Amino acid sequence: MYEIAPLLKDRMISLVKFSDEKWTLESLQNGTLYLNTLEYFRKLEKETNERGMGDDNEGRLILTELNIKMYDNENEKLILSGKAKSSAIKTQEDSEKHVLCTSYIDFGNLEIIDQGKDYFKSNIIYTEEQKAEFKKHFGKYALIISFTEFVNNINDSFKTKGIEGTSGKVKYSDFSINYMKRLDPFIGNTSDKYLWKDLYFKNQKEYRLTILNRDSEKPIKIQVGDMSNYSAIITSDELFNNELIVESHFNPETDTIKLE
Fold it and tell me: What is the mean pLDDT of the chain?
């Protein structure tokens, strides 16, 4: 039986957008991107008192175990010092950034069930914890979108409309520890700061598109190309119960190696 090479396992195949409302997925499939702000997702956790789709730390710099010193602005004399267990820093600019959040399927999700000389067929594997979390927080329907076609569509559409965006896999980190790799994007004010979330959310395997030049307090819609030819809407149960088969083709002369 073939094995998927470790270097290939992180390569994305498809994006997955979940929803309890099928019409919202049909709208996205037709090319309408509906994007909420980071502030919306912060408020969502507070309003629902639940972490899942909502996250009070979205786009904020979280620091822990701090030594705090305050100085007089005129004479620069120290007026207060002490310790703080944690601090959360946000800006209005970051709060008004709009994001499209999806999950993703990569080759690491696949389990090979059949093969031929130049192909293999596989199931998409989710842990029971992931299944429960997606169903609880994200919905009973799933829109599966070809990753490569999606990226090409976004790049072409945004170029035409003059929209600046950035995208990538979300990186998960223990927010109780002040890791420099997480702090650096905030210090340097780079767009990578929008791709960090706490380890609590790691089961979501999120891929995020962030709009950089359409800041506002309200949600926005962006029309891109139709995605119907390279996407499909199924139920979450169909996705999680191995009712979707992924077939991959390759050149056996150049794309495989013999393991000793």
Answer: 92
All residues at 6 or more sequence positions from 73 whose CB lies less than 8 Å from its CB, including other chains: none
Are the C-beta atoms of 239 and 140 separated by less than 8 Å?
no
CA nearest to 161, candidates 222, 238, 87:
222
Task: Read off the tokens for 154.
Answer: 């976004």
On whether residue 148 sits in a domain, the answer given is yes
Our count of domains for the chain comes to 1
pLDDT digits (tens, 9 = 90+) for 62-81: 999 878 777 878 888 888 88
Place of tokens 């790799």: 181
Range of the domain at 72: 6-249
- Indicate whether 255 belongs to any domain: no
Is 258 part of a structural domain of the chain? no
Q: What CA–CA distance (Å, rounded) separates 8 from 58?
A: 30
> Looking at the domain assignment, is residue 257 inside a domain?
no
How high is the pLDDT of residue 256? 58
Q: Which of 63-72, 97-106, 197-206, 212-221 has the lowest mean pLDDT?
A: 63-72
Asked whether the beta carbons of 107 and 4 are under 8 A apart, the reply is yes
